[in-house]
Write a structure and sequence with these properties.
single chain, 322 residues, alpha+beta, 6-stranded antiparallel beta sheet, 6-stranded mixed beta sheet, 12 helices
């Protein structure tokens, strides 16, 4: 989409607005590129499966959007995991996204302390109110043949978006800014989520190489792109009646914005019986047998709720093949 709202040649067919998608775009000033994520059924399935309280559902939905945004900005085959650990009522959040667009997430929290913490104004400062002190970690796993990358930053700031921005600023990567939103919508109260990520293009981009824009102009263009993104409301990000093209045009039409082909996102879990068996095999047999109840050892996936049961003969087979 160009400055006059005309779809660009790069723009591909866009799925229905309510679908789970990530939509890449670029500001025509060449100072920034971005991603817009919309999650419908994917985030609702994640947060509704365990009936998370609203504060936990909000944080978990934001983390799922953050994982989708950052994963879509990387060129890799593998899994991006975003993990938060804190000493607050919500002690852990984990979300990961595969390069194929599959997303899963789960959370751990203390219900009693959460009830006390959420009685205050947690929406304006969810990190200090709900997560406390801790860290945010990004891990990229590209398979056993490639060394994993991990970047860790302390939980400083009011929101997960603040913490993610700080991570990019302190790492060797380009500057980035984020806007995240999660809310129950419609008569059914189904959860929806949306988010936007803006990345500053390297200073050696097309504009600088051609001598068209000096450094200060590129800096100003970057700041302007971030301010315009920040002007987007949470309601706009989750509104399934607002087409993504229309939202981007509203925000960036004065500078011009070009959209590219969207990519589908979906809820997906990588758990399997073979993976669970491999995990059990890594522990001493005596420890696993202590978990036996009514003749079975039962393992439940925290992400999708799948239940894997192992009886005595299964345990014998697992350790005989060890």
């Amino acid at each position: 989409m160009t400055g006059d709202g005309t779809p660009s040649e790069e723009a591909g067919p866009l799925p229905l607005v309510g679908n789970d998608i990530v939509l890449p775009f670029q500001i025509e000033s060449q100072a920034a590129r971005g991603k817009l994520v919309r999650l419908g059924g994917t985030v609702d399935r994640i947060v509704s499966r365990r009936d998370y309280p609203a504060p936990v559902a909000t944080l978990l939905g934001e983390l799922a959007v953050l994982a989708a945004l950052v994963s879509s900005a990387l060129k890799y085959d593998g899994v991006l995991t975003v993990q938060v650990k804190g000493d607050g009522p919500v002690s852990m959040l984990v979300a990961d996204a595969t390069s194929a667009g599959e997303i899963r997430a789960c959370a751990a929290f203390d219900r009693a302390t959460l009830a006390r913490a959420s009685a205050g104004d947690w929406r304006n400062s969810p990190v200090p109110c709900l997560l406390g002190d801790g860290y945010l970690a990004f891990t990229i796993d590209r398979g056993p043949e490639v060394e994993r990358y991990q970047g860790i930053v302390e939980l400083r700031g009011g929101s997960l978006a603040d913490c993610a921005r700080r991570h990019f600023r302190e790492s060797d990567q380009n500057q980035a800014a984020f806007k995240l939103a999660v809310a129950p919508t419609g008569p059914s109260g189904a959860w929806r989520a949306g988010g936007m990520m803006m990345q500053r293009l390297p200073d050696a981009g097309p504009a600088r190489l051609s001598g068209e824009a000096p450094d200060e102009e590129l800096e100003e263009s970057w700041r302007r792109a971030v301010v315009l993104m920040a002007s987007c409301t949470a309601a706009e990000l989750v509104d399934d009646r607002l087409h993504p093209h229309d939202l981007l045009y509203r925000l960036f039409h004065e500078d011009g914005v070009r959209v590219f082909e969207p990519h589908a996102l979906a809820h997906g879990c990588r758990c399997s019986r073979d993976r669970v068996e491999a995990t059990l095999r890594s522990f001493p047999r005596a420890e696993i047998e202590d978990l036996e109840l009514d003749g079975e050892v039962v393992v439940t996936c925290e992400f999708c709720g799948a239940r894997y049961a192992f009886d005595g003969s299964d345990i014998d087979r697992i350790y005989l093949t060890n």
